[in-house]
UniProtKB/TrEMBL annotation:
Recorded name of the encoding gene: Nxnl1
SUPFAM superfamilies referenced in this protein's UniProt entry, alphabetically: Thioredoxin-like
GO cellular component: mitochondrion
Gene3D superfamilies named in the record: Glutaredoxin
InterPro entries named in the record: RdCVF, Thioredoxin-like_fold, Thioredoxin-like_sf, Thioredoxin_domain
Organism: Crypturellus soui
Domain Thioredoxin, first and last residues per copy: 1-189
Name the record gives this protein: NXNL1 protein
Organism lineage string: Eukaryota, Metazoa, Chordata, Craniata, Vertebrata
Pfam families: Thioredoxin_8
An example Gene Ontology biological process: photoreceptor cell maintenance
Domain of life: Eukaryota
């Protein structure tokens, strides 16, 4: 997947605005991951409605507060913002792990043509080898939320047995806390029943 951005620069959405421009840096960030290309704009009404959903979707899959470890997922924002200031303003509200192309990079237009993006918002989902999993996953993300990543993971042959949402662990944790209490209650009830049965026989 890093080959898609060979010779290009990707900017990390952190306060330092770190740039990934070497083959090694791009490979470490993109290889063996499902890649989302988010074509959008901070000024577009439909994008303003969808972007918070995409932000939460991404966070729930990559933030260790929600998952045991970050999923094999990376997102590159392909801006249609009118100015660099508007792009920066929009990105400040999005996750720090997002990547983006520099505002003046004409490669954004090449990506639009390559993946036939006619309107925004659009989310193109790619396998690590660059094959398209979904031409536009906006409605899928709206409908299924983080669960749709499992489908992409299988399609991309990224078998990750450790992928579990936080609620799965909450369920396990609640069982581990209450099970001993239930077993103790059952044991006491059983002993009381045996004592009553013994008294009746006497």
């Amino acid at each position: 997947m890093a080959s898609l951005f060979t010779g290009k620069v990707l900017v990390v959405n952190n306060s330092a605005r770190d740039e990934l421009d070497t083959e090694r840096e791009l490979g470490r960030s993109l290889e063996n991951k499902v890649l989302l290309l988010y074509f959008g704009s901070g000024e577009c009404p439909r994008c303003r409605e969808f972007s918070p959903l995409l932000r939460d979707f991404f966070v729930r899959l990559t933030d260790e507060f929600y998952v045991e470890r970050a999923s094999q997922l990376v997102l590159v924002y392909v801006s249609r913002d009118e100015t660099e200031e508007k792009q920066s303003k929009f990105l400040k509200t999005m996750p720090k792990r997002w990547l983006s192309l520099p505002f003046k990079d004409e490669f954004k237009r090449e990506l639009e043509l390559r993946f036939a993006v006619a309107d925004v918002p659009a989310v193109v989902v790619l396998k690590p080898n660059g094959e398209v999993i979904a031409g536009n996953a906006v409605e899928e993300i709206r409908r299924l939320g983080p669960a749709c990543f499992r489908n992409w993971q299988e399609a991309a042959e990224l078998v990750d047995r450790n992928f579990r949402l936080a609620e799965d662990f909450d369920e396990v944790a609640s069982r581990s806390v209450t099970d001993p209490l239930r077993r103790l209650k059952y044991k006491l009830s059983k002993e009381e029943g045996e004592e009553e049965e013994g008294e009746e026989r006497a």
